[in-house]
Design brief:
With 307 residues, the protein is of the alpha/beta class. It has 2 domains: 4-159, Thiamin diphosphate (ThDP)-binding fold, Pyr/PP domains (Rossmann fold); 177-304, Rossmann fold, CATH 3.40.50.920. Helices cover 38% and strands 20% of the residues. It has 12 helices and 12 strands. The strands form 2 sheets. Strands 2-1-3-4-6-5-10 form a 7-stranded mixed sheet, with helices on both faces. Strand 1, helix 2 and strand 2 form a beta-alpha-beta unit. Helix 8 packs across helix 12 (286-304). The longest helix has 19 residues, at 286-304. The chain is globular.
């Protein structure tokens, strides 16, 4: 099955051909997908080697000359290792770039903890002005890559994953999509967890919102959903649990509400295992989600009934 990352090089190569502002900066990883494009545009496809700090610094330099750099490597090497350069070279200098990651939280368990980055979105959340896209299907990844490159000189993070929902949704790069409507709570599913969330909430009287853009957070969309479904919110993210609970609380600051944040736990799982085993260990499989969402919604029903 085609992955989100399979779409990356073809989409960005077409953008390189169409837009003279677009440049690509790589650090070895992903270079094979750009061999032909590099021959066509040797001045706008740059491979810095295994130097991730230079990867981001070079992208910032290109941005300061007026180019729109697209920067790609694994999430742990794109956000965590060169975080100082992300903070200063891009943020402090107000230089825009599109950071496109691969491997996500635990997409390559055999790579070990050095190749896992469940805290990437939370880390970027300490900085100002970042747009964060989390597609859940290759079609959505293609749409969001186009949005990211076209976003003027903004700072954008596109988080690609090997995990995917079975079908893509129509998205606009800004708003949540209502997938199911209910009356006893709102469940927000981010990116590739949607299929598991839909399976876990089957038969539960809850509204399910689908989020592929989490920064800016669609506060208005969440508020609209809570008017009919109530202000108990379950947030399921494919990265560090609780990353966006503050955004939920801010959106509902003027009304009583409860928030349950589910996602990747902080405890390091030291056996390689498989993606499916990691997913289950973090409670992100349908059975694990059903148990925790059901308990949360059930508790809300008991409180409402005065039990």
């Amino acid at each position: 099955m085609e992955t989100m990352r399979d779409r990356f090089a073809p989409v960005v190569s077409r953008l390189l051909d169409e837009d003279p502002r677009v440049a690509v900066v790589l650090a070895e990883i992903g270079k094979d997908g750009f061999r032909e494009t590099m021959a066509r545009h040797p001045d706008r496809v740059v491979n810095v080697g295994i130097r991730e700090q230079l990867l981001v610094g070079a992208a910032a330099g290109l941005a300061l000359t007026g180019l729109r750099p697209v920067v790609h490597t694994f999430a742990s090497f794109l956000v965590e290792r060169p975080f100082e350069q992300v903070k200063l070279d891009l943020g402090h200098q107000n230089a825009g770039a599109v950071l496109v990651s691969a491997a996500a939280s635990f997409d390559w368990p055999a790579g070990g903890y050095t190749h896992m980055a469940p805290g990437d979105v939370a880390l970027l959340d300490t900085l100002d002005g970042w747009t964060v896209h989390v597609p859940g299907h290759p079609d959505e990844a293609e749409t969001l890559l186009h949005h990211a490159v076209a976003a003027g000189d903004d700072k954008v993070y596109v988080r690609l994953s090997a995990q995917s929902n079975r079908q893509g949704r129509v998205i606009d790069g800004r708003h949540f999509v209502t997938v199911r409507e209910g009356r006893r709570g709102v469940v927000v599913a981010v990116g590739p967890v949607l299929d598991a969330v839909l399976a876990a909430t089957q038969g539960l009287d809850v509204t399910v919102l689908y989020a592929t853009t989490v920064r800016p957070f669609d506060a208005a969309g969440l508020r609209r959903a809570t008017r009919a479904a109530g202000t108990d919110v379950v947030l399921i993210e494919p990265y560090l649990a609780g990353t966006s609970t503050a955004a939920v609380s801010e959106a509902l600051a003027d009304v009583p509400h409860r928030v349950l944040g589910l996602g990747v736990g902080r405890r390091e799982l030291r056996r390689y295992g498989t993606v499916e085993e990691h997913t289950a260990a973090h409670g992100l499989d349908p059975a694990g989600l059903r148990e925790r969402i059901g308990r949360f919604v059930g508790a809300a029903e008991q409180v409402g009934a005065g039990v």
